[in-house]
Design a protein that fits this description.
The complex is a heterodimer of chains A (about 325) and B (about 240). With about 325 residues, chain A is an alpha+beta fold. Chain A has eight helices and 19 strands. Chain A has a six-stranded mixed β-sheet, sandwiched between helices. A five-stranded antiparallel β-sheet of chain A has the order 14-13-12-16-15, with helices on one face. The chains are: A alpha+beta (about 325), B mainly alpha (about 240).
């Protein structure tokens, strides 16, 4: 069942186009993640809840039971955890059993603590629990993992699973793709020129021959990657390409600040470019190892590769060992 | 705009808890009581009993109603905006009317309780007080102050701004009636202020000759009506969390 349907939605604020070409359907029980900035995210939330109207396009909502959690939302510091939750439980009017929820949200041990004494990890889970008391049909959360510790991220993910089990559809926005990979199963990236582009997370069928793994990969000197545009075909040498990204199922060659579509799949490109120093660091990304500048670990579960062009590419946890073996760091 | 008793009750409980733990605003009724007690101890033997009771009651009521009323609504509303807790409430299916009613009731009850407490503290006894008139006048003036405080809260973005905007109002409405004896022009002006009605009530009780005057009813009604309209206009223009 579709909860919200956006068709070519644009929003202009103060002479600035914040959102455009937004076409998205939020299905019930879907686990959507949108990569966008804070300003874009807040504007998007305002549109969804009907606080502002779109400049153009259409939004159809089949539910009014929508809650939003912003990173800037405050708490009443002088109240205790249980006191705070009791107040909002009354406000929600559903009178849920707080004791079991406190356990499920890993907050049972701090129930009598004042909110000002809580850690950021605990505050984020408390905010999520407060939202769960209302059992909204749709919950929109902005940047929930920002600045959380590794154990805090794990506990937040458990709490989020509880919210989803209660029947709430959760849509999450974040700056960081690696956060969205932990929180969502379907991810879109927002770009002001192109609107929402789906990041391809589905695993492809491998086309390698069984013997390929045994073959010694010899470097080849001549190879070009083609990109077919409207009236021409552009050829790139592998060393010109920073990385290749799968968006909406299409492989996009990233050369400098520009993108060029390739007719080949990620797997085919991987097969051809491995000999030229390319590495499949994630299901959606193939990077030129010569372009790597830094490896960051934001949490135990997420790694990010920073390229010389300052692009940030997620590195799958399972690929860390392969990368380690390849470049001996 | 739909409203719900359950939500108003929930906001009332929340606001009562927050108010009672907020020393910044609870200082106002405490100061009113403290000032009356201290001044009575200092001046009771130097002035006539009637003057003493009237002055102390008027002084205490002005501090409580004007300072307490304005501070108890402007500060918390601005604090909720500053700390982004108001957005949380307003996105929890609470309407503006739910919020206003639930937020105004706790300070109203605290201030009315203090108004009654000031009667014996100022040296009057409950037999000499026309309790009905006392309650009506203090209730109307308290609500007027709460509305003026809400107006300040609606216009303010943070607590500092709310304090700055509240200060002139508090000074005018507490100082002018207190010093009206020193200047005849000031005394004339004070008759047009809702706070002036409070001092007239206190003086009338002390002299055992309090009577309702049509002009006072008009002043009270006008201030209450104007404050209400101003709050509604500010709410319609800016909303609660502008």
């Amino acid at each position: 069942m579709s909860l919200i349907d956006l068709q070519q939605v644009s929003k202009q604020l103060d002479q600035q186009l914040i959102l455009q070409k937004l076409t998205l359907t939020i299905e019930s029980q879907s686990e959507l993640g949108l990569q966008m900035t804070t300003h874009e995210s807040q504007t998007f939330f305002d549109l969804i809840v009907g606080k502002t109207l779109p400049t153009s396009g259409q939004i159809n909502a089949s539910t009014q039971s929508i809650l939003t959690l912003l990173a800037t939302d405050g708490l009443y510091d002088q109240l205790t955890v249980i006191g705070y939750l009791k107040q909002f439980n009354r406000l929600a009017g559903l009178n849920l059993a707080l004791d079991s929820l406190l356990t499920q949200f890993s907050l049972a041990d701090v129930r009598q603590q004042r909110l000002k004494q809580l850690t950021l990890d605990q505050k984020r889970r408390l905010v999520l629990l407060r939202a769960a008391l209302f059992q909204p049909t749709l919950l929109l959360i902005e940047n929930p993992l920002a600045n959380l510790s590794d154990p805090g991220i794990d506990l937040y993910l458990q709490a989020l699973a509880t919210v989803r089990k209660l029947g709430t559809t959760v849509l999450i926005t974040s700056h960081y793709l690696e956060d969205l990979l932990l929180l969502s199963t379907t991810i879109y990236r927002y770009h002001v020129k192109n609107g929402l582009e789906q990041t391809d997370l589905t695993p492809e069928q491998t086309v390698f021959d069984a013997n390929d793994s045994n073959q010694v990969k010899q470097p080849r000197s001549i190879f070009k990657v083609a990109s077919k545009l409207e009236d021409k075909t552009v050829f790139f040498s592998p060393n010109e390409i920073d990385f290749i990204e799968s968006i909406n199922g299409i492989s996009q060659l990233k050369v400098g600040s520009e993108s060029f579509p390739s007719p080949l799949t990620m797997t085919a490109l991987e097969k051809q470019l491995t000999n030229f120093g390319f590495f499949r660091c994630h299901r959606s990304y193939l990077i030129n190892l010569q372009q790597i500048a830094e490896l960051h670990s934001y949490s135990r579960n997420s790694y990010t590769l920073i390229l010389k062009s300052h692009a940030k590419i997620p590195l799958a946890r399972t690929k860390l060992t392969d990368l380690h073996d390849l470049i001996n760091f | 705009m739909t409203t719900s008793l359950r939500k108003i009750h929930a906001i009332f409980n929340l606001k009562t808890t927050l108010l009672l733990t907020n020393t910044n605003v609870m200082v106002a009724p405490g100061l009113a009581i403290g000032m009356v007690v201290i001044m009575r101890l200092l001046f009771s033997h130097k002035l006539s009993p009637n003057f003493n009771t009237g002055f102390l009651m008027g002084f205490g009521l002005l501090f409580n109603i004007v300072m307490g009323g304005i501070m108890m609504t402007s500060g918390p509303l601005a604090e909720e905006k500053e700390k982004h807790t108001l957005r949380v409430l307003m996105t929890s299916s609470v309407t503006g009317l739910d919020y206003f009613i639930g937020s105004l009731c706790p300070p109203f009850l605290i201030l009315m309780f203090t108004n009654l407490l000031i009667i014996p503290l100022a040296g009057a006894n409950f037999q000499q007080v026309p309790l009905g008139s006392y309650l009506v006048i203090t209730a109307i003036t308290t609500v007027t102050s709460l509305l003026l405080g809400s107006l300040v809260g609606l216009w303010s973005h943070n607590q500092t701004q709310a304090s700055l905007l509240s200060l002139p109002l508090i000074l005018i409405f507490t100082m002018a009636p207190s010093f009206q004896l020193l200047n005849s022009t000031l005394k004339h002006v004070v008759r047009y202020l809702y706070a002036g009605t409070v001092t007239q009530l206190a003086d009338g009780i002390a002299a055992n000759n309090f009577q309702w005057h049509g002009f006072d009813i008009l002043v009270l009604g006008l201030w209450l009506g104007l404050s209400l309209v101003a709050v509604l206009l500010a709410y319609r223009k800016n909303g609660l969390d502008a």
